[in-house]
Amino acid sequence: MKKEEYLKKLKYLLMDMPGEDLAQIEDFYEELIFDGMEQGHTEEEILERLETPEEVAKKIRAEYGGLVVYTAKAKSKEKKTKQGYESSEMIHTVKVETENLRIQVRTIEDGPVRIYFKPQEGKDQVECEEKDGVFSFSHKRRLTLNLKSWLNLFMDFGILILELPMNFAGNLWLKTTNGTIRVNGLAGLAQGDIFSNNGRIRIENSYAEVLQVRSGNGRIELNNVRGEKLDASAGNGLINVKECRFPQQIALLTQNGAVTGRNIISDDIVMQTSNGLVTGTIIGNQNDYNISSTTRNGFNNLDNINEPDRRKKLTVRTHNGRIQIDFAM
């Protein structure tokens, strides 16, 4: 069985699930296969060790149907303010830290902060509390990583779902080890700090005044994300940012991987990698930018320029790769 056949059958078995959830499940298993191949395993080897689509679908349905709810205590009359969301008290900060678990953040129209997760007896240790406006959730899981246990981690479909009201305007702090993070639809964060040690981070259709995204060994993907300042850094992984606007600064830094910025807007842009190409399109006038760009081995379409009357900055660096940055009005 090939990857396409495996995913097609899994989608068919889960076709009655909500479209967004189904798309995320498909993305997850496709990413799982790609990640395994990046670690040196063949597609056939990974699919051979994965459970059948029927077994995976059964586990997913059991997981979604049996998630334990951890929630801030809600008052009978909840109040919304510009500063954040009131449940039992003002929630201004949400902190989630997990091990060997994937995090999915989604929004709801109304209601308290909630976390859905199903602990496994003998594997998971969970602590959850709300104190002084901070909603905290911590999770630890025992795991020794090798090929078999690495695949078992994903076949267990260990997932944590964080629900936030659309009007939540506080701080969000997420950290996971050996897991992916997906965020969608957050409209007014004051500050976001999102970190994955080994896993992809994907953020879409969201706003954070100050956003820091860090990945130790995984891709960072941002689509239609806005705010004032963005700092995205990946130790070993590509960075792909498109349709993003952060007027104060956009900084995209990685060691081993390509850096791509499509239709980005900022007065101070930094795009840097050691081994990989740097490409992108900047919305704006090239004549407004002071430009500093270097590559040792590759084509560079930018001319370096430093004039006092130019108020914007563009810095592009790579050691081994080409630089291709275009401007569009």
Low-pLDDT sequence parts = 74-83, 145-150, 152-156
For the biggest sheet, the summary is: 20 strands, mixed
N-to-C SSE series?
Answer: HHHHEEEEEEEEEHEEEEEEEEEEEEEE
Strand percentage lies at: over 45%
Rough outline:
globular
Total number of β-strand segments?
23
- Radius of gyration, whole Å: 21 Å
Structural class: alpha/beta
What are the defining features of this structure?
alpha/beta
Secondary structure layout plus pairing:
Layout: H1 3-13, H2 19-38, H3 43-49, H4 53-65, E1 68-71, E2 80-81, E3 84-86, E4 90-91, E5 93-99, E6 102-108, E7 114-117, E8 124-131, E9 134-141, H5 147-155, E10 159-165, E11 171-177, E12 181-184, E13 189-196, E14 201-215, E15 220-234, E16 239-242, E17 249-254, E18 259-264, E19 268-272, E20 278-283, E21 289-297, E22 312-320, E23 323-328
Parallel strand pairs: 5-9, 5-11, 6-10, 6-12, 11-13, 12-14, 13-14, 14-15, 15-16, 15-17, 16-18, 17-19, 18-20, 19-22, 20-23, 21-22
Antiparallel strand pairs: 1-7, 2-3, 3-4, 7-10, 8-9
Helix pairs in contact: 1-2, 1-4
